[in-house]
Amino acid sequence: MVLVVNFGGQYAHLISRRLRELNIYTEVVSHRSLKSVIAQKNVKALILSGGPASVYDNEEDIKNLDFILNLNIPVLGICYGHQLLAKLVSGDVKRGKGEFGRTEIKILKDDPLFKGWEQKENVWMSHRDYVAELPDIAEVLAVSERDYIAAFKLKNKPIYGVQFHPEVHHTAKGRKLLNNFIEVSGIKKRWKLKDIVEDIINYISRTIEPNAKALAAISGGIDSTVAAVLVKKIIGDRLVPILVDHGLFRKGEVEESIKCLRKIGLEPVVVDARERFLKKLWGTRDCEERRRIIGNTFAEIFSELAEEDSNIKYLVQGTTYPDVIESGHVEKADKIKSHHNVAALPSWLKLKVVEPLKFLYKDEVRRIAKIIGVPNEIISKHPFPGPGFAVRVIGVFTPEKLEISRNASKILEDELRKENLYNNVWQAFAVVGDDTWVGIKGDSRDVGYIVTLRIVVSEDAMTADWYRIPYDVLDRVSRRIVSELDRVTMVTYAISSKPPSTIEPC
Ligand code: XMP
Questions:
Q1: Which of 143, 164, 185 is the last residue in one of the domains?
Q2: Residue nearest to atom 14 of ligand 1 (CA)
Q3: Residues facing 444 on adjacent strands
């Protein structure tokens, strides 16, 4: 087993996932329980994750980790982990301007860790502090454009630090580096996706009591559908699939979802709650507040259904890892957004939550979906946030702006499908805020909204880049939006990556 030590980074679990892709069994542990886990388990190597803290935030904590240097197993420190190792060997970690996004590094020394890398490579960085100097027991393997130490190794031990993130997709040779680290560590690759499915099935059988029923809140997206199908395999008709229409889905989506779900034997009870949700949302400004309102309203509906049938004891949700991580449910992690299906469900909800996919990433869920026969229409659909278009309206939430973002998104999706580009991107949608732009429509002055198109490529939503859309397609989408949507006078294109941006606007 390789242990990933979590310092609360957004990517700790991504590291673990990358290793699982290499068929390596991993567990993620908090740095606080590291010592006891190492004493109990057969740990062959350690990877120290990144994290939002600075090595200067908690110097006592850091001193207590110096046993890491004497474990006699290979260690790879990533980002914060890299700075931490430098600090443990009395290197100099400084506060700097930071490096964010794609950055070029130069390899200075041949080392098995960089097998297959060119002398200059692009990597993904996301840090402020940096390692400025190291003692003689360490050697610098690579530097960044700013001349910060991008990688180092202790001379007499397989202990490495890299400032960049090899686990994210945007570090093109990151997987190679992780694989090299595994080879340096001499670990055998034996673990498979099939094992994950077995683990999930065992978890469901262990968790749901005999005779109890479970509500499965299905949105028609892949996560909730896969979660429901897996639970249904174990509890059969004791699974009650419901589809709550909150009025925030894409245009036409509810009808399409029902058709697809029927194909796989899930006949959802459709709860038309559009008015109930929307009347509480009109006029709100803050997306976190909207998430709370939506979470509460979902919970009220689930509770009412459970009151009607006392055998309903569980709620099945399609929560995946990014939802958990970005909601700040990992020790030391900063909360980015409280994704409703984890954070915003109120504590009074009596149903026990069953989250079979909680430790999986989207592409793993997609692979499982194929194995269990989920229709392709669902598998290939872009991911969609639980609060739907409530997080795609910036500023005051109004019926007009909701309709603009839904309609503009439909135009964008239709054009991408026509051009066969839909499947090349992770998500594509349109958002609208309160800003306006003066236009001329029908020879007269017209003040209308600005619609921003957001199209991203990503592998797992943990990081994302903006999509280099062909200009002619962008032009067609933009012209259709301003001509078909009366109240829109300007279309813009969002071109920031994640990080530092996020995918949804709020
Ligand atoms: P961000 O905007 O945080 O989004 O970069 C990462 C992924 O999560 C989705 N997302 C949400 N999903 N509830 C959800 O279930 C939410 O409140 C929420 N906010 C963002 C987003 O669409 C992207 O795929």
A1: 185
A2: 385
A3: 441
